[in-house]
Amino acid sequence: MRKKIFGGSVVFVSALAAFVIIFMVILMLGALFIGGSEKLTWEFLTTAPSDGMMSGGIFPAIIGTILLVLVMSVLGVPIGTLTAIYLTEYSNQRSFFSRTIQFAVNTLAGVPAIVFGLFGLGFFVQFVGGGMDKLFSGDGQLKWAQPNLLWASFTMAFLTLPVVIVSVVEALRAIPNELREASLALGATKWQTIYKVVVPNSLNGILTGAILAVGRGAGEVAPILFTGVAYYLPHLPGSLSDQFMNLGYHVYVMTTQSHDVEATLGIQYATTLVLLVLTFTLNFSAMFLRYKIRKRAIH
Q1: Residue 163: which of 225, 116, 128, 96 has the closest Cα?
Q2: Which of 26, 59, 123, 206 is the most exposed, having the fewest neighbouring CB atoms within 10 Å of its CB?
Q3: What pLDDT, on a 0 to 100 scale, did the predictor assign at position 128?
Q4: How far apart are CA 225 and CA 118, in angstroms?
């Protein structure tokens, strides 16, 4: 009797926790939709801010956020995947070097986002960018030694690396060793086994890491404060050396630095809703790609 009561209590508490989470998500999305529905027009989505950002749209911020996430993913996901392959397939788990890498990954996961921003400013903008300008710019003009889209993407890639590495490592370790042993027994080399057997069977985990990185990267603001985002730009970035607007930073500016915060509440709600929809869209795109790959593997 006690076991039944305890089991029923666990089910009830678990269901209540799940219900509270779903209710909070619905409540948040509902509040954002109600508060920003008047501003959510085609003009709001396709025009630049105007009148001191008291009116107009958020088109440069939407494009800037998409570019940041795409460049960050192109830079971060391959590096994280290769690191995970080395940790699981090549390195000795008990070696000092392997333990050092794992310690570095765990430490990076706990570093505050603002610290990544300061690191990006010092290393990418001043050190790497300054060095590139000295080498390639003879007239002393600054091109890379200033905040831009590339350095912001590099900084965000470093921020999301631990998420990608941990996800891919777990996916690689879940593959049965019998598959590796069978491949090697048939004459395949170590690299052929990884390329033909291990990686295809762990694509779900790799894409899961990419999904988590996209979700983290689209919403973070602190790292790009020092490395690339601009307060206001009426145009889109034309190259990787240009600054850009960002939806998360736009919300921060509207809520803290606007001279009339109450008058911009509709813009704040609508911008936040667009940011969430954009994040969900990018995540669902990766999930759809994962579903298609899994379906193709089954057939």
Answers
A1: 116
A2: 26
A3: 93
A4: 9
Token pair belonging to 177: 């060793």
Per residue in 82-128, pLDDT (tens digit) is 999 999 988 887 888 888 988 998 888 888 999 999 999 999 999 99
- pLDDT score at 154: 94
Distance CA 49, CA 57 (A): 5
Q: Tokens 């990185």 correspond to what residue?
A: 213
For 12, 25, 28, 80, 282, the CA distances from 22, given in Å and listed in that order, are: 15, 5, 10, 32, 21
Which residues does 221 contact at the CB level (< 8 Å), separation at least 6?
229, 246, 248, 249, 252
Buried b (16+ CB within 10 A) or exposed e, 260-297: eeeebbebbbbbbbbbbebbeebbeebeeebeeeeeee
Exposure of 292 in the CB half-sphere (CA atoms within 13 A): 6
Beta carbons of 72 and 150 less than 8 angstroms apart: no
Residues β-bridged to residue 50: 55
Q: Where are the beta strands (DSSP E) in 54-188?
A: 55-56
Locus of tokens 């777990």: 170
Q: pLDDT tens, 159-217?
A: 999 988 988 888 888 888 898 899 999 988 888 999 888 888 888 778 888 888 887 78
Rg from Cα positions in the chain: 23
Separation of alpha carbons 99 and 91, rounded Å: 10
- Tokens 């973070």, located at residue: 220
Rounded to whole angstroms, the Cα distance separating 44 from 39 reads: 7
State the burial class of residue 161 (Cβ atoms within 10 Å of its Cβ: 0-12, 13-18, 19+). buried
